[in-house]
Amino acid sequence: MPLRYLTSFDTQKIERENWDVVVIGSGVAGLYSAVNLDPSLKVCVLSKETMDENNSYLAQGGIAAAIGEDDMPEYHFMDTIKAGAGHCNEEAVAVLVKEAPKDIKLLEKLGTNFDREPDGSLTRTREGGHGRFRIVHALGDATGKEVVDSLLRVCRKRENIVIKENCFAIDLLVSEGRCAGVLIATGIDTEATKKVLYCRSVICASGGVGQVYRNTTNSEVVTGDGISMAYRAGAELSDMEFVQFHPTAFYTPEYSGNRFLISEAVRGEGGILLNIKHERFTHKYNEMGEVAPRDIVSRAIFSEMKKTGSNYVYLDITHKDSDYLRKRFPTIYRNCLEHGVDITKDYIPVSPVQHYFMGGIRTDLMGRTNIKCLHACGEAANTGVHGANRLASNSLLEGLVFGRRSAEYINANIKDIKLEEVNVSNISRASGKTLNIIDVRNEIKTLMDAYAGIERNGPDMEKALNRINEIISRLEDAGMGSISAMETLNIAYIASLILKGAIARKKNCGSHYRTDSE
After folding, report:
1. Does the domain at residues 250-353 carry the CATH identifier 3.90.700.10?
2. Where does CATH 3.50.50.60 sit in the chain?
3. Which pLDDT score is estimated for 87?
4. Are 199 and 44 in contact (CB under 8 A)?
5. Which residue of 30, 223, 300, 308 could cross-link 487, Cys pair, CB 3.0 to 4.6 Å?
6. Do residues 133 and 125 lie in contact, with contact meaning Cβ atoms separated by under 8 Å?
């Protein structure tokens, strides 16, 4: 069993604050839920580091919504179900695609400036797995930044919303099945000060699990903290084995760790994939070729890399107009140029890396979990909309739709909930031994890359799980004297849960692919 609490504390002896709603996470899901909460509610938004340190801020592609004359929510529904490999919650998908246009309009009202055509209509593109051009985007390839910035401007104008930066959420305080507050740490690592935020409702929008893996597109702060703390508090988790590997992250042999993304939209705009022999290959694996769902394209690239003995393949978009590429993909153009690749005339070296997490805290259609007064939305939640493989540009959309729905439920029901203090005195039994946290993290990441990646098998995953469990025991025994140590234990817990889920699922499904599948 995991530790219930990561650190020693006594709620009677540390500083406390009272709020109506605490939102854990400052990405799109967290900020959008905050702006949709009733202005009469006192809302605290926790940002683990600064406001630009989250995955939403890095999101390039866009937001999927059936707004074109040739499109309809039913088509979006079918594409989502197909990408999810038959594992989607169809009721949740129906809500997602039906309400998508409404949230695009609301974002516009809140100040988000989406890219537009000369006639004033929203520019739409196509990405992998979509049968229609339905992806709206902003700043060319910086949609996440524009959406976060616009929501942040709204939050800062609202007197009822306070954003606390550099706040690490440690644990949820739960009493008799109800979430009544959050234990946080403010400050720098070993010098951090603990504080309790009591509240009537909590929204966990803390993001995914990218730092469980060595090669990831995710921000450094994405260590699975929210999912881990909810799990330790008794929240139900689901679909933990489903980890998405984006087909095309920029590859360079000198660069490991966080990798910058080459958006799905590059292939949606006509980019083609070539192996190192300059041979096009994706149609050998799926009739949709480069715009097949991500799990299929990632496995196709992985297969070609093995066949050719290479660590990468090429993405070619040089046949498109140079000025168009610089305008449509300014961030990608600039990042690649910094690494000596001009996308207007050079092939882009790419390879698959961990990008997104389909699993998480199980929720219903209003973001509710099995713990009363605890909601979850965005990548931290498992609403069931993504199934076994997320459709491109449905991630920001999910955060919007279910972040708003969580807020709407709280608005309608919070009047019946009273603020309640929880008396907890937790004394750590740790030995206080010193561990090299960097070495521990690197070992976890190496194990997960090797044994819980694009291809998996039972014996290797069992071996990895045994080693992860040993690491967990060492971390728990050493104690959590710093924020980085707590993050590392969260990473280890999440790694073990991913492996357990993957070991239990014997058959292949979407992003979960076992070479020893039954």
Report:
1. yes
2. 9-242+358-416
3. 98
4. yes
5. 223
6. yes
Q: Mean pLDDT across the chain, nearest whole number?
A: 95
Nearest to 379 by CA among 509, 212, 256, 200: 212
Strands 201-204 and 374-376, bridge-based pairing? parallel
Amino acid at 155: C
Q: Which residue has the tokens 């998480």?
A: 360
Query: Token pair 């107009």 is at which residue?
Result: 321
pLDDT tens across 116-165, in order? 999 999 999 998 899 999 999 998 888 999 999 999 999 999 999 999 99
Q: Which amino acid is at 402?
A: F
φ, ψ (nearest 5 deg) of residue 383: -80, -20
Residue range 257-274, pLDDT digits in tens: 678 899 988 999 999 999
Structure letter (DSSP) for residue 262? -
pLDDT at position 410: 99
Tokens at residue 128, please? 């992998």
Q: Nearest-5° angle of CA 292, CA 294, CA 297?
A: 65
3-state secondary structure of 10: strand
- Residues of CATH 3.90.700.10 domain(s) within the chain? 250-353
Return the structure tokens found at 254. 């000198």
Q: CA 396 to CA 27: how far, in whole Å? A: 9
End-to-end CA distance of the chain: 30
At 187 the pLDDT is 83
Q: How far apart, in whole angstroms, are the C-alpha atoms of residue 99 and residue 83?
A: 19
- Give the separation between CA 41 and CA 415, rounded to whole angstroms: 10
State how far the Cα of 481 lies from the Cα of 432, in Å rounded to an integer.
Answer: 8
What is the Rg, in whole angstroms, of the alpha carbon atoms belonging to the chain?
A: 22
Among residues 294, 390, 404, 405, the one annotated as catalytic is 294
CB neighbours of residue 139 within 10 Å: 17
Starting at the earlier edge strand, list the strands of the sheet with 161-164: 161-164, 43-46, 21-24, 201-204, 374-376
| Fold category of 9-242+358-416 in CATH | FAD/NAD(P)-binding domain (3.50.50)
Q: Which of 164, 289, 216, 223 is nearest to 6 (CA)?
A: 223
For residue 196, report the phi and psi dihedrals to the nearest 5 degrees.
Answer: -110, 130
Taking the C-alpha atoms of residue 181 and residue 201, their distance in angstroms, rounded to an integer, is 8
Q: Which residues are within 8 A (CB) of 171 and not within 5 positions of it... i.e. 6 or more apart?
A: 4, 5, 6, 7, 182, 183, 229, 232, 233
pLDDT in tens, 197-209: 999 999 999 999 9
- Say what the alpha-carbon torsion angle 468, 251, 138, 401 is, to the nearest 10 degrees: -20
By CB atoms closer than 10 A (0-12, 13-18, 19+), residue 191 is exposed
The pLDDT tens digits for 409-445 are 999 999 999 999 999 999 887 777 889 999 999 999 9
Q: Can you tell me which residue has the tokens 């939050």?
A: 155
Residue 294 annotated to the active site: yes
